[in-house]
Amino acid sequence: MAISAVLRDVLRDADAVQSFVAERVYRDERPQADPLPAIVIQLISDPRPLTFSGPQSLRRAWLTVECLSTSRGEADAIAETVVVEIDGRAVVERPEVESTRIIDVRNDSSRTNGALATTFRTAIDVMVWHYPSN
Prior knowledge:
alpha+beta; five-stranded mixed beta sheet; 39% strand; 3 helices; two-stranded antiparallel sheet
């Protein structure tokens, strides 16, 4: 299973995350008509390091977890909940995940296509050391 799918499933299964977004945790993009709040996970990098004896079994992936809401406070609260669920853990007993670390957190907001409401975004960069599935 792709590491972004593993992280998606971990966050969907977390009661604290569900209290904010229900099942609205997506990979790559949020369906346009779906309501906020929501979480979108994007894989930024997942290099395949090689050794002289072949591929290295443990890989380090960089993912961004975007917490989206119609208010800055809620986007930040969702982000704090996500951090609690994934930072420094073996992502809730998933055998393919060795460790996680939060690298950066940043905020922004946007209005698209003349929308009346602002979408607030808190983005969390996460490094995940994982064993790829075969």
